[in-house]
Automatic annotation (TrEMBL):
One of its GO terms (biological process) is deadenylation-dependent decapping of nuclear-transcribed mRNA. It catalyses: a 5'-end (N(7)-methyl 5'-triphosphoguanosine)-ribonucleoside in mRNA + H2O = N(7)-methyl-GMP + a 5'-end diphospho-ribonucleoside in mRNA + 2 H(+). One of its GO terms (cellular component) is P-body. It holds the Pfam family DcpS. This is m7GpppX diphosphatase. Residues 319-344 have a biased composition (Basic and acidic residues). The active site is at H259. It is found in: Cytoplasm; Nucleus. Homodimer. Associates with components of the exosome multienzyme ribonuclease complex, such as EXOSC3 and EXOSC4. Interacts with NDOR1. Belongs to the HIT family. Its main location: cytoplasm. Its EC number is 3.6.1.59. Keywords: Acetylation, Cytoplasm, Hydrolase, mRNA processing, mRNA splicing, Nucleus, Phosphoprotein.
Length: 375
């Protein structure tokens, strides 16, 4: 399949990026070499917020070639060329440190713009305290689901993709089947060129599956097709071995229309942590074992300080204060004189014996320190 051609609309945003005015820095990630900025486009609106993300492009292996083919025309850019500007910081025996500026072709910075940005977008790109929520099915029905219904991101952009109204030229693969079909296209976090940093989204066609919580045994054919067809399409298009791909769902996802994330296992992609991602293979296996697994399971997920959903869970669970209260309760129990074993069941006797050892062994300060470390 030939490389997609950019459409005129992709080159003509409604804003002029050079007119962005900074309000504050939301985050600055030195590991990922990215920075997220909150500001506005005053020429368009004085009230609408805008988020601009700058991220250094990942290195492509072809960019470090030192001996391009003689008949290659035009020559591909390389860091090791006459265009490289080198400033020496120091040389000490076998070690040297330099500041280098490569050719213009290799100095690009990827930028993502969200405009107008909502409070939820700002929260997503900000650095703040995080809390782990253990969501039972009951808590999902009582707290999470009503919140999602009232405050969900607009999914208009997703439907625009599925209906070919926008981003048609970016589609890598699509299956038109109403029940098991999906569209595969590059994620915004990928520049679409560097295969070493490949990042794709598989967005299903069905509109009634918000997240893992809605999946059941009747969706197995959809999930199997999503897995198999995506791997085949990626191998044909990009030459990536299917066994080198990571395919997973986020919970909670950033938008509530079921979609799978796909990237190489050798890359540290955003959101691959154990408290966030659920491997597609594991989801399929869980549903094969128990068709209503995700209606019965407790699913952990992370909420950020400032999230309204966190405030709702705080009222129900005291999320922010739970560790301190638990430690206090555990370390302030008054010791009891151990009664004789007669008159108690084996279970009661064992429980009292265990409690006696716990209170008698460490000094109070040691006990408190241990409890805090475990929390």
């Amino acid at each position: 399949m030939p490389a997609p051609v950019e459409s005129p609309e992709a080159k003509s945003p409604s804003y002029d990026l050079s007119k962005f005015r900074l309000k504050r820095i939301l985050s600055n990630n030195s590991v990922r070499k990215s920075i997220s900025l909150l500001g506005s486009f005053p020429d368009l609106s004085e009230t609408d917020d805008a988020i601009v993300v700058f991220e250094k492009n990942a290195y492509r292996e072809s960019d470090v070639a030192t001996q391009p083919a003689a008949d290659e025309s035009p020559k591909k850019p390389s860091y090791f060329s006459s265009d490289l500007k080198v400033a020496t910081e120091f040389v000490n025996n076998i070690y040297g440190s330099f500041q280098v500026v490569p050719s213009r072709d290799l100095c690009g910075v990827k930028s993502t713009v969200i405009y107008p940005a909502t409070d939820k977008h700002i929260e997503k790109y900000s650095i703040c305290q995080k809390y782990l929520i253990r969501e039972t099915p009951e808590l999902y029905e009582k707290i999470t689901l009503p919140y999602l219904t009232e405050s969900q991101f607009s999914l208009e952009w997703v439907y625009n993709i599925l209906e070919h109204k926008q981003e048609k030229e970016r589609i890598v693969f699509e299956d038109d089947d109403a029940e098991t079909g999906f569209i595969l296209l590059p994620d915004l976090k990928w520049d679409g060129r560097n295969v070493e940093n490949l990042y794709l989204l598989g967005i299903i066609r069905k509109h009634d599956i918000k997240s893992l919580r809605d999946l059941n045994g009747s969706h197995l054919n959809l999930l199997r097709n999503l897995r198999q067809s995506s791997k085949k399409a990626i191998r044909e298009r990009y030459g990536v071995n299917p066994n080198q791909l990571r395919m997973y769902f986020h919970y909670q996802p950033s938008f509530y229309h079921l979609h799978v994330h796909i990237n190489p296992v050798r890359n540290d992609a955003p959101g691959i942590w154990c408290e966030k991602s659920h491997m597609l293979d594991t989801v399929i296996n869980n549903l094969e074992l128990l068709p209503d697994y995700y209606q019965r399971a407790t699913l952990p997920f992370v909420l950020y300080e400032g999230n309204k959903l966190l405030d709702l869970y705080e009222k129900e669970l005291s999320v922010r204060g739970a560790p301190e209260e638990s430690d206090k309760k555990e370390t302030t129990d008054e010791p009891h004189t151990e009664p004789s074993k007669e008159g108690f069941s084996d279970e009661e006797s064992d429980e009292r014996q265990c409690k006696r050892r716990k209170l008698a062994t460490p000094e109070p300060k040691e006990t408190e320190g241990t409890a805090q470390a475990c929390a």
